[in-house]
């Protein structure tokens, strides 16, 4: 062999080996950079509990009843609060096939510390406390970190034969989570039309549309919630999609608009779920036979359902929107929101009362069904009963064992719902509780001794929205109630509840509390003076945060009125030295009145009224609203001065 040729070959092989080594090292470095928390831009770490490093979702529509979704997701969790942002799991049932699922865990430096194959994912029932949904299961990653930060790379491929529930693209997933990269792409291999709606994409420079139903987002900083803001869905960026022709549990549907969609639901999903056993039909007819009005009948049915059924929590998407058969719910005596609403509807039907299923967003924050985009929305089902006895409509929350008949406040009130009727879907608004109805009235007789001890008999009545803030106390133990009262009146040192009685008027949704209390050191001595705060009970100590920059409009979901009036009987050794001046504040957000007057017989009279008005105001108004609440808090803590001794 020619020596020159040999040396040339050896040199070439050496160069090739070096090249391979360089390529491997480069790939390793790139991999570490992908997963290392040190490579995250500093602006994405600010206010973040987790960083979505990558969230690529590709949806391939193969037919109206077959959709494949491929997810490639990398999340760096910065602290314990960010664990909920991992989202490494998939739910499945007879209509859903998880083709592949796996995850890898990386440490802070980007070094792989664990790989989780499909067989290593937890595989559990979607409902742990019932058998109604035994076919619905969840495969999820169960990982307990030893330290933070760490990174999870999750990948899945899932094929769905029920195509009504299509995922939305939400590039900013929620508060305190930033997004480094997110893509969303829909590939339509059929003639099925794909509806879509873009919301709140403008104003985010990192969001771009790459083509029809193809989007990408880069470097979106974490959003920090601000007090009294509208619901996140009203300003968070989102793209919703829906198929005009789809399948749900093997039933083909059409989704041109809410009317058609609702008609399909009524005729296809809800047609065979209302049968009841003969014995319960006989029982419910017997219970209602002496009812004088339709409303009285409906109330008997509702309370019958509450007494014999219990609620299990299942998301609306589990099992689709088709409720469990009423006969089955009666047999097992429990159900989710869909099952219990349908069971109540079937009972009402047997006594001649028409009612309709209603899909809604259940949440403390008020969120509407989007009336302009027909698709599977909502997370809850209630029941709509129109014009009983030619009076107002009634809505029934069927998951509560304690709610008064027709009471919705606090969870499903004042929002648009999708009502499924024989004529199709209709968007209707649920019960609104006006400010004047959301009352808390406190009356009291207080005795104040010369050593600062206060004893009082207090009567508190709450109604409207405020009813559900107090009625739960009736079911608590004395110990639990004492804890609640000490939290509610945390400004009263050494508070003791010596006696308590309750009255729950479910007809009017009014909850009454009569309490006897002792506060050994309510007033404090300063030489020959006794100082105390005359506003003892309904006190506003909450002042929302001050922001350098207010980003969102001011939203007050529910207005209310608090009114206190009580008499303070002073010990004979006490005389008035100074009382707070009368205060009257008027704003567009509400009003405040405080009067402390001296009466004959060595007594003081305290009157306080705070009214907060609901409404949507500009973000510029937030500062004035905060100042108003700050003034209220200051006046609620104003002091009276008494002299000790004659």
TrEMBL record:
DUF3857 domain ranges (all copies): 67-220
Coiled-coil intervals: none
Residues of the signal peptide: none
Pfam families: DUF3857 (PF12969)
InterPro entries noted in UniProt: DUF3857 (IPR024618), Papain-like_cys_pep_sf (IPR038765)
Gene3D superfamilies named in the record: 2.60.120.1130, 2.60.40.3140, 3.10.620.30
Protein name, per record: DUF3857 domain-containing protein
């Amino acid at each position: 062999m020619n020596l020159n040729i040999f040396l040339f070959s050896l040199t070439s092989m050496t160069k090739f080996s070096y090249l391979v080594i360089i390529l491997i090292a480069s790939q390793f470095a790139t991999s570490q950079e992908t997963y290392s928390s040190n490579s995250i831009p500093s602006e994405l770490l600010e206010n973040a509990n987790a960083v979505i490093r990558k969230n690529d979702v590709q949806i391939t529509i193969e037919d109206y009843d077959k959709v494949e979704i491929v997810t490639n997701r990398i999340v760096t969790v910065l602290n314990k609060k960010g664990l909920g942002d991992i989202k490494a799991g998939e739910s499945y049932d007879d209509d859903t096939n998880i083709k592949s699922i796996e995850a890898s865990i990386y440490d802070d430096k980007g070094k792989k510390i664990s790989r989780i194959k499909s067989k290593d994912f937890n595989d559990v029932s979607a409902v742990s406390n019932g058998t109604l949904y035994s076919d619905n299961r969840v495969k999820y990653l169960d990982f307990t970190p030893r330290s933070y930060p760490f990174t999870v790379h999750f990948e899945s491929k899932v094929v769905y034969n029920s195509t009504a529930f299509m995922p939305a693209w939400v590039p900013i997933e929620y508060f305190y989570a930033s997004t480094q990269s997110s893509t969303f792409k829909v590939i339509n291999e059929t003639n099925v039309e794909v509806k879509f709606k873009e919301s709140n994409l403008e104003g985010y420079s990192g969001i771009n549309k790459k083509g029809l139903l193809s989007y990408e987002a880069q470097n979106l900083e974490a959003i920090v919630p601000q007090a009294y803001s509208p619901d996140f869905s009203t300003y968070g960026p989102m793209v919703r999609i829906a198929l005009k022709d789809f399948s749900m549990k093997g039933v083909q549907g059409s989704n041109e608009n809410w009317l058609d969609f609702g008609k399909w639901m009524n005729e296809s999903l809800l047609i065979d779920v209302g049968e009841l056993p003969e014995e319960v039909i006989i029982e419910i007819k017997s219970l209602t036979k002496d009812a004088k009005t339709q409303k009285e009948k409906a109330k008997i049915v509702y309370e019958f359902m509450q007494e014999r059924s219990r609620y299990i929590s299942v998301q609306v998407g589990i099992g689709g929107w088709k409720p469990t058969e009423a006969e089955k719910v009666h047999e097992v005596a429990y159900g989710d929101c869909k099952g219990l609403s349908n069971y109540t509807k079937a009972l009402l039907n047997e006594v001649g009362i028409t009612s309709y299923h209603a899909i809604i967003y259940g949440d403390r924050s008020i969120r509407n069904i989007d009336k302009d985009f027909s698709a599977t929305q909502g997370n809850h089902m209630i029941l709509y009963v129109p014009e009983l006895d030619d009076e107002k409509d009634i809505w029934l929350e069927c998951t509560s064992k304690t709610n008064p008949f027709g009471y919705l406040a606090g969870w499903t009130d004042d929002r648009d719902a999708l009502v499924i009727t024989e004529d199709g879907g209709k968007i209707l608004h649920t019960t609104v509780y006006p400010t004047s109805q959301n009352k808390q009235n406190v009356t009291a007789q207080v005795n104040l001794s010369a050593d600062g001890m206060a004893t009082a008999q207090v009567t508190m009545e709450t109604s409207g929205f405020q009813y559900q803030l107090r009625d739960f106390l009736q079911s608590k133990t004395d110990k639990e109630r004492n804890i609640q009262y000490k939290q509610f009146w945390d400004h009263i040192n050494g508070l003791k509840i010596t006696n308590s009685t309750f009255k729950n008027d479910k007809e009017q949704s009014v909850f009454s509390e009569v309490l006897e209390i002792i506060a050994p050191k309510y007033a404090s001595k300063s030489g020959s003076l006794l100082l105390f705060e005359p506003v003892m009970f309904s006190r506003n100590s909450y002042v929302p945060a001050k922001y350098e920059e207010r980003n969102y409009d001011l939203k007050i979901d529910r207005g209310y009125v608090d009114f206190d009036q009580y008499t303070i009987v002073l010990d004979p050794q006490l005389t008035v030295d100074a009382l707070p001046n009368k205060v009257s504040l008027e704003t567009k957000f509400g009003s405040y009145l405080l009067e402390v007057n001296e009466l004959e017989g060595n007594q003081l009279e305290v009157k306080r009224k705070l009214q907060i008005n609901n409404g949507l105001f500009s973000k510029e108004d937030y500062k004035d609203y905060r100042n108003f609440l700050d003034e209220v808090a200051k006046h609620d803590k104003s002091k009276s001065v008494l002299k000790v001794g004659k």
